[in-house]
Amino acid sequence: MKEKLQSVLIVAFIIVVFASSISYVFAEEGNQQYSSGYYQLNLVIEKQTSGNNTSGMYSFYVLENGMLQPSSVIKVPFGKEIKITIINFDQGTSLPLASSAENVTGVVSGTILASSSISTSNAQALTSKSGQSVSEIPAREISHTFTTDTGLNIPIYPHSTEVAYTYFNTVGNYTWGCMCQCGIYSMDASGSMVGQLVVLPP
Ligand SMILES: [Cu+2]
After folding, report:
1. Where are the domains of the chain?
2. Quick one: fold of 2-200?
3. pLDDT (tens digit per residue) in 59-91
4. Listed residues: CB within 5 A of ion ligand 1
5. Rounded to an integer, what distance in angstroms lies between the CA atom of residue 193 and that of residue 181?
6. How far away, in angstroms, is 68 Cα from ligand 1 center?
7. Mean pLDDT lowest for which of 110-119, 136-145, 162-171, 192-201?
8. CB of 201 within 8 A of CB of 171?
9. Can you spell out the DSSP letters for 88-150?
C-alpha cells in the first residue's frame, strides 16, 4: 500500500513537472493571435490531469495565453485565414472510423505540414523544408483527427506537430471531433475528442 502511494505520488510529481514545463514553453505565445495576419488556433492533444476525469485519456486542449483551455467550445473568426497548429503528445495510433479520415481536406493548398518534433517554436517555424508536406495519412499511422462538419479534416500522426491553414466561410455553430476509435469515454466526451465549433461573425 505504501509503495503504491509512493508510485502515485511520483507519477503526480512527473505530471506536475511536465505540465509546468509545457506551460513554460508555451508562455511565449502570449496574445499574438491576431498579430501575423492570420488567426492562430493552437491545439494540444494531451492527457487530462485535472477536472472530473483524470483517467489518463488523451484530450484536445486549446492553448491560449500559455494555458491549456478546454476544447468543448472552440471559437474561430469568420472569413479570416486561420493557422491551426496541432501538437500531439500521444504516441499511439487508433484506427479511424471511416476511410475518409485519412485524407487532408478543407485546408489551403490541400496539404498540411507535419513534423515528429514536438514544440510550439517548431510549430511556428515549420516550413516545407523542415516539415513533411502531407495530403493523406494511412489509417494505421493515424493517432487522432481534427475534423469539423464544415469539411475540414486533419489526420494527425502520433507524437507530432502539424500545421494547417484554413478558412471558415459560414458563420454559425458547428461540431468538431476526432474520427478515430481512440477511447470509449473520450470519443463521446465534450472537450475531449468532440466539441462545438463556433464561427464568429465579423
Ligand atoms: Cu482521438
Report:
1. 2-200
2. Immunoglobulin-like (2.60.40)
3. 999 999 889 999 999 999 999 999 999 999 999
4. 144, 178, 180, 182, 193
5. 10
6. 17
7. 110-119
8. yes
9. E-------BSSGGGGB-BSSGGG-EEEES---HHHHHH--TTTSEEESB--GGG--EEEEETT
